[in-house]
């Protein structure tokens, strides 16, 4: 009697197992892609930071990083538009601990939009230096707006071109940017910074990893990030 009861359930069980296997198979390539994307972003961030630190035009970057609470590195921010502009890119966020040691990188995305008299396109390597713990806390908690809650001072922005605020770097965040192309108008004001949870999960093999747990609590490590961390003063 027991075998006759179980027999009809077997095909249903097999179908469920097959469906689960197919779902796992679909998820694995996506996770692998995220892992590759994360590793590539970390390496490009290292190259960007190394290049800017070696560039005589950005000699002020080193002392600001030495005094920083955190840093966000964007190997590529893309801005462009006609009348209505948009800006965006992915980067990594790192925090300096109370022991004066930099923690692992978390992955973030910057998105911004603006309306005004603007034309052209621009690609930039950008480093946002977070100058105090309060600003770092606000970034991690996502409770801020660029130019509103957190003030931004703009450092060198191109081939010897300096913004008007360069002489007084007094902001919560100091932005260093190397540009390619020409763009008139637009700024970081109103920009949104959001975590890239899928990259964090894939890079640290931790589905629920948060930016705070990665950068401040240092719960997760990936040896691939060590070359980037070593570049930071």
From TrEMBL:
Annotated keywords: Signal
Entry keyword ATP-binding: no
Keyword Signal in record: yes
Membrane-crossing residue ranges in chain numbering: none
Residues making up the signal peptide according to the UniProt record: 1-32
InterPro entries to which the protein is assigned, alphabetical: SH3_domain_YSC84-like, Ysc84_actin-binding
Record domain Ysc84 actin-binding: where: 112-232
Protein's UniProt name: Lipid-binding SYLF domain-containing protein
Organism lineage: Bacteria, Pseudomonadati, Pseudomonadota, Alphaproteobacteria, Rhodospirillales
């Amino acid at each position: 009697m027991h075998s006759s009861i179980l027999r009809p359930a077997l095909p249903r069980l097999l179908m469920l197992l097959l469906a689960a296997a197919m779902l796992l198979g679909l998820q694995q390539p996506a996770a692998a892609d995220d892992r590759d994307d994360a590793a590539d972003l970390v390496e490009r961030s290292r190259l960007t930071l190394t290049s800017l630190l070696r560039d005589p035009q950005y000699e002020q970057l080193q002392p600001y990083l030495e005094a920083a609470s955190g840093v966000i590195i964007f190997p590529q921010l893309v801005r462009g538009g006609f009348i209505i502009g948009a800006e965006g890119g992915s980067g990594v966020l790192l925090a300096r601990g109370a022991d004066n040691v930099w923690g692992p990188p978390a992955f973030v995305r910057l998105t911004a939009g603006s309306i005004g008299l603007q034309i052209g396109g621009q690609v930039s390597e950008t480093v946002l230096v977070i100058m105090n713990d309060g600003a770092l806390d606000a970034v991690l908690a996502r409770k801020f707006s660029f130019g509103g809650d957190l003030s931004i001072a703009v450092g060198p922005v191109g081939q010897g071109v300096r913004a008007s605020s360069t002489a007084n770097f007094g902001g919560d965040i100091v932005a260093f940017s190397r540009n390619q192309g020409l763009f008139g108008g637009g700024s970081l004001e109103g920009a949104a910074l959001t975590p890239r949870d899928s990259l964090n999960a894939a890079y640290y093999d931790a589905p629920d990893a948060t930016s705070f747990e990665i950068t401040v609590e240092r719960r997760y490590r990936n040896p691939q990030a060590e070359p980037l961390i070593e570049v930071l003063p």
